[in-house]
Every structure is written in C-alpha cells, then in structure tokens.
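Page 42, continued from yesterday. The earlier attempt failed because a stray header line got pasted into the input along with the sequence. Redoing it now with the clean sequence only.
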Amino acid sequence: MLTTMLKHEIKNLLRERMTFVMLLYPIILGAIGKYLVSQNIVESDQAIGITAMLVTLFAGFAYGAMSGFSLLDDRDDQVLESIQISPISVQWYIWFKVCFAYVLAVIAGFFIIWFVGALDITPVEILLISALSALQTPIVAFFINAFSKNKVEGFVAMKGFGFTIILPVAAFFFLDWVEWLFAIAPGHWVAKAVQYSFLRPAIEMGLEEMQLGFYQYIGFGFLYNLLLAAVAFILFKKKNQL
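This time it went through. Structure tokens are written below.
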C-alpha cells in the first residue's frame, strides 16, 4: 500500500508542470548560489551570508508550495472525498503527502548547503539546518489550502506567504534585541542559525555576539515551526471540514 502511494505521489508531482518546476527550483537555485560564490560575483561577507541563507530558506518554501498545490489538485479532483470511503484515513493520506515533500525538502536543503559551500559546518549541522528549513513545508502547504479554493487563489496565497522570507533577510542585519521583531517569520530561526554558522569564527574570537547559540536557534526554531505547522493544520481541517 505504502509503495503504491509513493509511486502515485511521484507520478502526480511529475505530471503537473508547476509542481515539477518547484521540484527542481531549489536545485537550480543552489547552482546559481554556487556560481555566485565560486566566481566571486558575491564577495562581501554579508552578501555571501545572505546568499547562503536565502538558498537554504527557499528549499523549504518551494517544497511547501509544491505540496500545497498537490493538495489543491487532490481537492479539485475530489481525491479526498474518494479516500473517505477507502480503508485509508484522509488525514493519514494528507500527512503522507506532506511528509513526503518534507523529506524531499531536507534532501534538497542538505544538497544545496553542501553544494554552495558558503558555510564551514559539519554534516550534522547541515542536516539540522536542512531539517529546520524543511519545516516550512507543512506550514506553507496547509496555509495555502486553508485560504484557497483553487490554484489561482493558491498562487496568491503562496505569494503572500512568500513575503515572510523578507523578514529573515531584514533580521540578518541585526545582532541585538531588534532581531526578535522579525522572529514571527518561520524562516527566522534557520536564518539566524545560518548566520551564526557564518559568523562563528568572529564570535569565537569575541569580535561578534549574537542573542543565542547555534543549537539554541535550532531548538527554539523546531518548537516554533512545529507549533505553526499544528496551527496551520487545524485551520486546514476547519476549512475542508475534515
């Protein structure tokens, strides 16, 4: 049963042009980031740090949008209604789709960070950053479906939610208490973890100071993003009467 659903999900993602592009988008973005860094087109420390942060954030967001539009397709095709009379629970099916996209986001995020090579961090730290960034996947997917009835409205919701990526960029320029003004954004915590990784040599020499440590940003980020994912799922259930 699980293998059949997995094959079906892969076929659905490859069938739709929009979801297929979103599937490749983080990889393309990583290649662009690698080119900018390796060719010294991006030279200043802040520019390199922001580049590393953005390519990391976009992986989770893009796969969240992909998962969100896949759910919209299922709603349009009345797949969820059909599942209600099958042995599989609707909520189990939905979480399978979202978790599948989450795993893809983690893999893509890990590859992008490693491939760009802008951060001098261990594989475990890369995995933690990737896993945290990928938590945008259920948040974006459920919010898109909580406020959209079709793909047109879904595209508008996706663009609206995309503005939250601007907040971590703004927070990148603040190392004092001002950064907490932008902490409402899901990507804030992973962005700060990336920034800490980038500034770690200066922090260890006492030249820079941040509000939290790397693992604190990661830990609080997981808690906050899981809470947002739960809220988004509740809104999604109410909207679709599940």
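Notes: The longest helix spans residues 45-76.
Reminder to self: strip header lines before submitting.
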